[in-house]
Amino acid sequence: MSSIGRVFFGLSLAAVVGIPLGIVIGRFQTAQAILGPTFDFLRPIPIAAWVPLSIMLFGIGEIPAIALIFLGCLYPIVLNARDGVQAVEPIHLRAAGMLGAGPMQILTRVVLPSALPDIITGLRQALAIGWWVVILAELLAVRSGLGYMMIHAQQLWEPATIISCMVAIGLIGIAMNVLTGLGERYLLRWRA
User: Where are the transmembrane segments (predicted)?
Assistant: First the structure.
């Protein structure tokens, strides 16, 4: 289904950019000082406000939809990764350094495992936001997917189709939540 593909593509791009960016912002005060205010400024702007600009820049089709999903998913990923990194106990960092761990080992063996619960929370939030944004994008800027089917059904006065799409959205949301919960339990099995 094109809606699911759009969400996962936009979410994947946001994760590839957002997780490292959040780690850098969380680890380095200079990055926090430069990028933190930028994210604080952009985060409250609703994704719907970006629709006209994305259509002007990219036209109608896949690219504006993916851009909107990417943007919607980016904020929770970056901010949760940042918060997870900043929550790492300083004593753990000092202990790893005293045991001879280098910066890369500290990052991979201390910081990332400690921040992983927050990173996963950011990914789960981003998935929910991505699903909301894809429907918005398909209502306004794409000619396929569940959102487009709903707007097309509205124009043809077919409420049954609209309700069917809404049920499909709900069922897909439940399935995504179950799958992400299983993935989270697997990745964080050490916590139990």
Answer: 7-28, 48-75, 129-149, 161-182
Q: Is 20 inside a domain boundary? A: yes
Query: The whole model's pTM is what?
Result: 0.87
CATH of the domain at 92: 1.10.3720.10
In a domain, 24, yes or no: yes
Contacts of residue 43, defined as CB under 8 A and 6 or more positions apart, other chains included, come to 75, 79
Span 34-60, pLDDT tens digits: 998 988 898 889 998 998 898 889 888
Please state, in angstroms and rounded to a whole number, the distance separating the CA atoms of residues 26 and 78: 9
Q: Which residues lie closer than 8 Å to 191 by C-beta, 6 or more apart? A: 117
Domains held by the chain: number:
1
φ, ψ dihedrals at 28, nearest 5°: -120, 125
At 89, the amino acid letter reads: E
Whole domain around residue 94: which residue ranges?
Answer: 2-145
